[in-house]
Each structure stands twice: as structure tokens, then as C-alpha cells.
Amino acid sequence: MQKPSNKLLEVQDLSVNLGGLNIIKNVSFDLDQGDILSVIGPNGSGKTTLVKAILGLVAYKGKVSVNGKPVNKALDLIGYVPQRFYFDRNFPITVEEFLSLSFKGKDLKNNKVCDQLKVDDLYSKMIGALSGGQLQRVLIARAMLNNPKLLIFDEPTTGIDVGGQDSFYEMASHLNKDHGVAIILISHEVNVVFKYSDKVLCLHEGEVCCHGNNYDFDIDALKKIYGDNFSLHNHNH
What we know:
Layout: E1 7-18, E2 21-32, E3 36-40, H1 47-54, E4 61-66, E5 69-70, E6 78-81, H2 95-102, H3 112-116, H4 132-144, E7 150-154, H5 162-179, E8 182-186, H6 190-196, E9 199-204, E10 207-213, H7 219-226
């Protein structure tokens, strides 16, 4: 009997052309169930475009499958927290009403995820009055309420102070361990992501320049991108 695959996400020969430019070039990687993968690379390396392709938001060539299904048939298995969430801060809507828009009929009272993220304490607040860190927790709760198998964060600590950044990574690690959700972190914070990731994928000019476990990564390849002064601090889970 064939052993069941542990692959949750499989990306094969993915290429994206936008406006005549090859933004992503033959990228292949996979992600096991319950693992954390960080995607790093300089600005303009194609990180956000890679996320959009995985979500089916841009046309691509190649193959993307989630849990053995084409991604367009498995979107209910993916939670997504964007880098920026644009909305009218004067719009009169509470946090509870905002969450209920996407999950009508679901009881938000005594919800485990909202409790763990301390979002239930914010239910009565207007969403426009939230701080950056509070809004991020609400968006994470919104992404988690559907019990996804894969959670994608695009530059999640943009605009958040150092204390908030530490809290975010601890929160993401907790969601991964407690809920068994696999996570993709798109980030420019190279040293930080190595602390929390099982694997790291580095993009450069739309191509994979290195990919592997966080403990045996090709530092020389990173130096070619970030410069000879680049050093990687030794982190352990």
C-alpha cells in the first residue's frame, strides 16, 4: 500500500508574467502539513507575486495544489492575512460585526481562536479605532475562523513596533503548534524568520536561489544577495 503523502502544498514549475516581465521563473517547492515556511528575498524579488499566484489571484503557468487538489478547488483550506488592509476608518462597524460579515451564522461568543488572540476583548470596539497590532490580531482571527490547513502572511510585521513584532511571531508559532496549521511567512526579516521556521525559501529576481531546512541553510548564497557583511544568528526553536 502506498504511504499517504504529507505534502499540503505543492508548487511545480510556477512562472508568472506580468506586463511582459517574468516576475516568477520556474519556482518549485512544497510544504508539509503543520510546517512553517518562510519566503525571504530583497524587495522586488517576487515574494508577493508568489503569494498571489498560490491564491490564484494572478495568472500563472505551472501547477499549484493544496491537499492534492488544484488551488482553485481548495481555497477554503487557505487563510490569508495581507500586508496592508485598506478600509474607511470612519465606517461605523464594530470588530464583532466585521468578523460576522464573513462568518454569518457562526457563534463568535466563546470562540477558541478569538479568545487565544484576545480578539473577543475587542468585539465592541470600532474597527477604525484599533491600533496596528489590534487590527492584525482581528485579521488573523478572521483568517483562522474557517479552520484553514494553510495560513499565509504577507510581510506581517510591516508598520508594527519591535514589541509587536515579537508578539506576532510568538502568536504565529502558537497557532502552528496548537492548531496544526501550516504557515507561509513572507518576510524581509531574515534572522527573525529563521528562529521560527522549519524551512526557508529565498527568492532573487523571481528565481529560487536557495531552499532548505533552517539549520543547514546555504549562507554563501544569501551573502551573494545581501552582501558579504551578511551574517545569520544561530536560532533554535
